[in-house]
Write a structure and sequence with these properties.
CATH class of the largest domain in chain A: Alpha Beta
CATH topology of the largest domain in chain B: Arc Repressor Mutant, subunit A
Order of helices and strands of chain B: HHHEEHHH
Oligomer: heterodimer
Number of strands of chain A: 13
CATH architecture of the largest domain in chain B: Orthogonal Bundle
Strand order of the largest sheet of chain B: 1-2
Shape of chain A: elongated
Structural class of chain B: mainly alpha
CATH architecture of the largest domain in chain A: 3-Layer(aba) Sandwich
Largest sheet of chain B: 2 strands, antiparallel
């Protein structure tokens, strides 16, 4: 099967700064992938390169088997909703309005569903007669989300799609995305740092840090792939001996350590005997540790 | 995510919840189980994750597919599940119970007495 998105050895340099550093991954068609990482990690740059809005300095990208910077046809099969989406003005009297934006999108995307767009506009309470430039930040995000969902494009890219949206509107976005995705499967790549909120939606997570991929795995493989072990420091030391420890914290005689790897029944029995508390890490916690792995590796190497 | 635990693979939890409903009779044999999309909407999870949970139970013979209609609880699913759970009962419940009891200095006779006092005879002998 041709991957929906294929990124091979992509680097992007801005004035000597490496925003993307040899990034490679494939995304299969029909999946929701979370693109996670800290601010400035390179998420937006990566999405822009995939969307053909930017050329990579090295490496190549194909979307649905074609190059996004060479294929005009591809642009109608891919929608990119970005945080700072700008809309044209065309010097229209009263400005470029919400309904103009929706009309333009309906012409551009062959899969456009006007009924869905109408329902989403009502859900988000978008004023369709208002000029886009007069919309609040949250309403502008809502407009982007309506277009991103109603386009039903085979490849749907969302870059932090909910700036300024309140928790209720964000939940609405997740629910609508999930419902429409279930009926019309497509390939969704969504960048976010609200990992806990979006966790259930994601089939796969791609974590980037300083322009490099530090974790690329099925979300369910990441859940519980590391465990917090806490209790008396002596017992924690005994339990963690010979294991990869991602983090340690200590207060008085108590210690809490995060160990990598899945624990089996023997490990659990041993922890019980040592009176240790075990808590599997959530997706969000695991991602936070993933972003630190290279650092740990360096430390281990230098201390060895 | 409707009460799911973020530290455990979600598909495992979906499978466990359905298995619990089969074990306690909420989902009787021959009953249709919710579809992948229904589960995804309810738990607010990816449909592929829900599908993986369902297929785990299918592999175990607890669910069967009826073409074009959906997934149903297989004949003998409850009995099989109860046998399996009885086998794992000691390891999952008795061992931690005994470990904590010995930590607290509760001896075997006291432990048995405590279980009796908890009203087990009245509530627990029901099949």
């Amino acid at each position: 099967m041709t991957p929906a998105i294929s990124v091979a050895g992509v680097s992007r340099r801005y004035r000597g700064q490496l925003a993307l550093d040899n990034v490679s991954f494939d995304i299969e068609p029909g999946s929701i992938t979370g693109l996670l990482g800290r601010n400035g990690a390179g998420k937006t740059t990566l999405l822009r390169v995939i969307a053909g809005a930017e050329f990579p300095s090295a490496g190549g990208v194909t979307v649905l088997g074609a190059s996004p910077v060479k294929s005009d046809a591809l642009l109608h099969r891919m929608v990119f909703v970005r945080e700072d989406q700008r809309y044209p003005d065309y010097g229209l009297p009263g400005g470029f309005k919400v309904w103009h934006a929706l009309r333009a999108a309906s012409w551009f995307y062959p899969g456009w569903d006007a009924e869905l767009a109408g329902a989403l506009v009502a859900d988000f309470g978008l004023p369709s007669g208002r000029a886009v430039r007069r919309l609040s930040r949250g309403m502008r995000s809502a407009l982007g989300n309506v277009i991103g969902l109603a386009a039903r494009a085979e490849v749907t890219l969302f870059d932090e799609p909910y700036a300024g949206l309140d928790p209720v509107a964000r939940q609405l976005f997740y629910d609508r995305l999930l419902a429409d995705y279930a009926e019309y499967p497509r390939t969704v790549l969504l960048s976010t740092h609200l990992i806990d909120e979006a966790a259930g939606l994601l089939e796969r997570v791609l974590v980037i840090d300083s322009g490099r991929v530090v974790l690329d795995a099925a979300a369910d493989e990441v859940r519980g792939s590391a465990t917090s072990v806490s209790g008396p420091a002596i017992a924690v030391a005994e339990f963690t001996a010979g294991r990869t420890v991602l983090d340690r914290r200590r207060i008085a005689s108590q210690e809490s350590a995060v160990v990598a790897g899945i624990l089996d029944d023997t490990d659990r029995a041993r922890a019980r005997a040592l009176r240790l508390r075990l808590e599997p890490l959530t997706l969000q916690q695991a991602v936070v540790h993933a972003a630190r792995i290279p650092e740990t590796d360096t430390r281990e190497r230098t201390s060895a | 995510m409707a009460g799911l635990d973020e530290g455990v693979p979600l598909f495992v939890q979906i499978a466990e919840r359905l298995a619990d409903e089969i074990a306690d009779g909420t989902l009787p044999e021959g009953e249709r189980v919710p579809s992948t999309n229904e589960l995804a909407a309810y738990y607010r999870i990816n449909p592929a994750t829900a599908a993986k949970g369902i297929s785990m139970l299918t592999d175990d013979g607890l669910l069967e597919k009826r073409r074009g209609i959906g997934m149903f609880v297989a004949a003998g699913a409850r009995a099989g599940l109860l046998t399996e759970r009885r086998k794992r009962f000691a390891e999952r419940y008795v061992e931690p119970l005994v470990a904590e009891a010995s930590r607290l200095g509760i001896d075997a006779d006291e432990l048995v007495a405590l279980i009796r006092e908890s009203g087990y005879a009245q509530r627990g002998t029901r099949p």
